[in-house]
Structures are given as structure tokens and as C-alpha cells.
Amino acid sequence: MEDQPVEIIREYSRSILMVNRRACRDEETNVRRNIVSQNVTQAVIADIANRLKSKSAVSVSDLRTLKNGLLENPQYTEIVLNTQGAVRGLVRELTGQGSRQCVAADCLCNLSLGEERASAAVAKAAGLYLLAALDSLNVDLAITCAWTLGNMAGSGARAVSLMMSQGAVAKLAGLMTSPSDDVVDAAASALAHFAHQMGDDFRQEHVLLILQSLSQKKLTKSSLQLLFILSCHRDFNESMNEELLYKIIETTLKCMENITENCWDFVYSIRVLANLELNVKIYSLVLERFSSKREVMAKILTMNEDVVNNSLLWFLGNLFNYSDNYNFFQCLLTKNFQ
Question: Is residue 328 part of a domain?
């Protein structure tokens, strides 16, 4: 693709990531962590931060209070960051035993939801420990650590640079082969942030490993979003394998049948196909599978959803530019689906 369309897609994906980052994080937090509203004050947070700093006894209950507080009020993030040694105290708890590890990881995850300064502080103090915890047999701990890495990558270039120097992308890419679908989803979400921030600096070997791994997995919203961002990468087409291509096509066709429930899955998957560099084999395959869906596509184009319409039009435009037979498009325009 030309540079300008690539930049348009990257800017579009940037908007999606920025809008959804905190909303998705909070949604996952509420579902998985069962946060209960508490009366948390600045004094309570400051007391816990000081005890973390001084290596005084901090209970699991204290850590849960801190975890909840960091979500409720961004000022509490500043209190922790401004208490020298508090973040290192959370790292100490992360490397402990039992439930303390998971709750400490939750705290670091919520702390990394702050601005770039917060994420950079977490990356510097806890990055290597979070990466090590990705190998934990405790699936919840591994998932939370992956989320934390994604939060840090989503905050900006500074945290990404720190995490890259620690081998974060290679470690997360390796998780894409995990037997746990939840772990794969968390890793895909994190990698989407890294891929977006890094652009073509995202190494080809990692693109290849991710695509090979996803060819063996069920495609989810997180993995489709990752594929969408990677489809802007200069090495994407070269790294694409036939099995994954078939899977993306079938996923797109399935989403088209119930577009209202699968809106974003459809947007991500159809844009992956729209970004493919077509050849005779790929063009023939795509045209064959989509020819029976012309009526469905025509209905989708009547929806009052710009993001859906633009995504489908991008895909159709790519097909049209490659085509030397316009019967498919004439039938679509005239609504002659016989």
C-alpha cells in the first residue's frame, strides 16, 4: 500500500486504541476482579504507600484497597508515584507467594493505566518481574501481567522503549502459543499496543510468529484487532500463511451474517482483508467466497454506521482495483443477486 493510506489506517487504529483502552480495561476489571466500592481516602492510600516504601507489613486487604483506589481516583496514582519506594514495594509483593502476587499485579496493572509517567515508572521498576510472571502456572497472574504490559505500551513511546529493551515483545509473542485462550487474548491485546506504537520497527520475526500462532487459534476481537494493526506492517503480506487467510475470510463471512452483534470483529477482519496485497490466487479465493454474500454486503452498506461502511468500501475498492472483470461489482451496484 502507499504511504498515505497506511498512515490513515494507523491514525484510525490509534483512535480506536485510545478510545477503548480505559473502557475495555475497566470492563475486564469489573468482570474478573469483582471490585467492590469502598470508602477510600487520600490518607488511606498514602498510609499504604508509606508502608510499602518502608517494608512494613501490608496485608492482602490493604493491597485490594489500593487496587480499588487506583481505579477510582487518578490522584491516588500520583500519591503512589510520589512516595519513593512504593512501586518497588509492589514489586516485592509481586515476587511473593500466593494471593499477594495476584493482588500486587492488579495494583501495578491499575497503576499503569495512568499517564506516560506512571507507565514508565512501572516499566522501569517492575518490567522484568512482570515478564517473568508471564510464565506463571497461575493463569490469572499471567493474564494480569500481560494486561499491565499492554497498558504501559499504550501510554507512549517512553514505556515501549523501556519494555523493548527488556524483551517484552518476544515474550508476549511466545504467549500466543499458550493453550489458554484467555492468556492468548491478553497477549494479543498487549501486542496490539506495542505494534501500534512501533509501526514498522515491530520485528518481522515477531510478526511471523504471531501469524503462525493465530492460524491455530480461534480468532477473537483481541486477535483480530492485532491482525488489523499488523496488516499495516511492511512484512505482513510476506508473513501471511494460507491457513490464517482462510480463517480470516471465514470469520469475516460469519460476522457479516450478524453484523449488529459482531460489529468490531467485522471491522477488524474486513480491514485486514482490505490491506492484503492481492495476487491471482488470493483474489480468486476472496471473490469466490464473497460472491454469495453480495446481498448481505448491499444491506450492510445501507447501515447508518460510517466505520462499518467505510471498512467494507475499503475492501471492495481493493478488489475493484485488482479486478479485470466487473460483474461482481455490477451485480452489487444493481442489486441483481441472481
Answer: yes
Please state the rounded mean pLDDT for residues 65-74: 93
CA distance 202 to 206: 7
First to last CA, the chain: 34
**Does residue 224 lie within any of the structural domains?**
no
Rounded to 5°, angle at Cα 146 from 250 and 200: 65
Q: Could you tell me if residue 255 is inside a domain? A: yes
pLDDT for the residue numbered 87? 96
In a domain, 268, yes or no: yes
Spatial distance between the Cα atoms of 6 and 19, rounded to a whole number of angstroms:
20
Q: How far apart are CA 336 and CA 221, in angstroms?
A: 33
Residue numbers of the domain that contains 330: 241-338
Is the pLDDT reported for residue 24 higher than 60? Answer: no
Q: What is the DSSP string of 163-223?
A: HHHTTHHHHHHHHTT-S-HHHHHHHHHHHHHHHHHHGGGS-HHHHHHHHHHHTTS---HHH
How far is Cα 181 from Cα 242, in angstroms, rounded to an integer? 22
Split into its structural domains, the chain has a count of: 1
Q: Please report how many Cα atoms fall inside a 13 Å half-sphere around the Cα of residue 113, on the Cβ side.
A: 26
The answer to whether 86 and 66 are in contact (CB under 8 A) is: no
Tell which residue, 183, 281, 237, 258, has the closest CA to residue 227: 237
Q: Can you tell me the distance from the alpha carbon of 121 to that of 137, in angstroms, rounded to the nearest whole number?
A: 27
